[in-house]
Amino acid sequence: MADYSRSLKHWQSNLGTGMKIPQMKPFVGLEEYESIKECFETNWLTEGPKSKQFVAELCKIIGTKYGVLAPNGTLALYLGLRSLGIKEGDEVIVPNFTFIASATAVSMTGATPVFVDVELDSLQIDVQDCERVMTPQTKAIMPVHIYGGACDMTQVMNFAKKHSLLVIEDAAQAVGVNWGEKHCGSFGDVGCFSFFADKTITTVEGGFVCTDNEEIYKKLLLLRNQGRINRGTFIHPEIGYNFRMNDIQSAIGLKQLEKKEFIFRRKIENFNLYYERLKHNKNLNIILPKEESGFVPFRVAVMFNDKAAAIAKFLTSNGIETRTFFYPLHKQPCYSNKTNKDANFSSSNKLFDHGLCFPVYPELTKEQIDYICDKIEQFYDEKGLL
User: Fold this and answer.
1) Which of 185, 212, 266, 312 has an alpha carbon 20 to 30 Å from 23's alpha carbon atom?
2) How many domains does the chain have?
3) Which DSSP string corresponds to 302-359?
4) Which residues of 297-318 are buried (b: 16+ CB within 10 A; e: fewer)?
5) Are 68 and 221 a contacting pair, CB within 8 Å?
6) 69 with 208: CB under 8 angstroms?
7) How far is CA 318 from the centre of its chain?
């Protein structure tokens, strides 16, 4: 494996001496720049050979037969849903605790996202709560692998089989993450990934849909390419869209995949530094993955005993950027009149009020992590709570 410590030192040398610690920073450098240059030198900028290679590498990593690239993770979900025939009048089960794109992708098809709560300890979809929302219109379930851990895909797949549901995995934050022996995104009818700038592997913007079903794959090809399988023809058997990526993005992605083991290792090392510093602090709890789950931390997710607003403000004043947990989807203004108001959603509500995400990107230094942990301890020490 290549040695990326030089790139890491380059990044760290440019962080400056003042402790201004951002929430995220993509790990890109000269390797990606040189790969982009090849696209200009060969005069192939749109989707071409690098995109084909990127798809092949992703399928190899995830363990699926087929895959297509998409402009972003949201449209990857939309393509996945459309390829399964999800349409107006259908209902899709979506966890209440996730980024809003999981729900809006369902809404884009004309179907209705129906929200269920998540487990307080793992943040993953609560499969037991799914029974509550089943109706004759329920056609699919969308497990979302949160913050670099995996949903219990054994439970999800058993539930889906019991109710004859389609499964769309939202694995936007789960590159490199397994449930048991299988990679996230390879369990369902389709798996969907994002390569946004804050993701573990980035192409700046980008998405990916994978499947083992050849008929679904053919449908994906039609949907993403103006209703035709191949370019170069003006015969369009179906209505489709221009939902492609380009070789410049794929060139970045290929170099990112070459670095993936280094990126995974650095993020895990950084997570462990937080855990060792904070595991005995009685005022908080660091969220850990489920026992059978692999783990490539997307953020360091921390639940505080008290509401998190005060400590977030304190950390911001000390140059530390944090991020709240997801705002519950049932409270979103765009969905508040369309959801089951009788549901409790106690876990989702508590997670938003008490949770904060901390940075874990590869170039984060031990000194910076120590500084963050020192400030957390200072906050509670000043309150007499340590």
Assistant:
1) 185
2) 2
3) EEESS-THHHHHHHHHTTB--EEPPPPGGGSTTTTTTS-TT---HHHHHHHHHEEEE-
4) bbbbbbbbeeebeebbebbeee
5) yes
6) yes
7) 28
Which residues constitute the domain of residue 363? 262-382
Residue 169 is predicted with a pLDDT of 98
Residue pLDDT, tens place only, 18-42:
679 999 999 999 999 999 999 999 9
Rounded distance between C-alpha atoms, residue 295 and residue 32, angstroms? 25
- Rounded CA-CA distance 59/211 in Å is 9
**What pLDDT digit, counting tens, does each position of 117-172 carry?**
999 999 999 999 999 999 999 999 999 999 999 999 999 999 999 999 999 999 99
Q: Please, are residues 68 and 224 in contact by the beta-carbon 8 Å criterion?
A: yes
How far apart are the C-alpha atoms of 199 and 79, rounded to whole Å? 20
CATH number at residue 328: 3.90.1150.10
Left if phi > 0, otherwise alpha if psi is -120 to 50, otherwise beta: which for 110? Answer: left
- Token pair 């790139």 in the structure block, residue: 7
Phi, psi of 378 (to 5 degrees): -60, -40
pLDDT band at 311 (very low <50, low <70, confident <90, very high): very high
Residue in 142, 122, 38 with CA at minimum distance from that of residue 303: 122
Residues in the chain, overall count: 386
Which residue, chain included where needed, has tokens 């230094």? 365
Residue 9 is assigned to a structural domain of this protein = no
pLDDT over 90 at 191, yes or no: yes
Q: Say which CATH number the domain at 130 has.
A: 3.40.640.10
Instruction: Check residue 265 and give its pLDDT.
Output: 98
Among 195, 225, 257, the domain-final residue is 257
What is the C-alpha to C-alpha distance for residues 79 and 67, in angstroms, rounded to an integer?
A: 11
The span from the CA of 221 to the CA of 228, in Å, is 7
Mean predicted confidence (pLDDT) in 230-259: 93
Given 227, 257, 287, the domain boundary residue is 257
Burial class (CB in 10 A: 0-12, 13-18, 19+), 17: exposed
What are the phi and psi torsion angles at 166 (to 5°)? -75, 155
pLDDT tens profile 72-100: 999 999 999 999 999 999 999 999 999 99
User: What tokens were used for 193?
Assistant: 């990934």
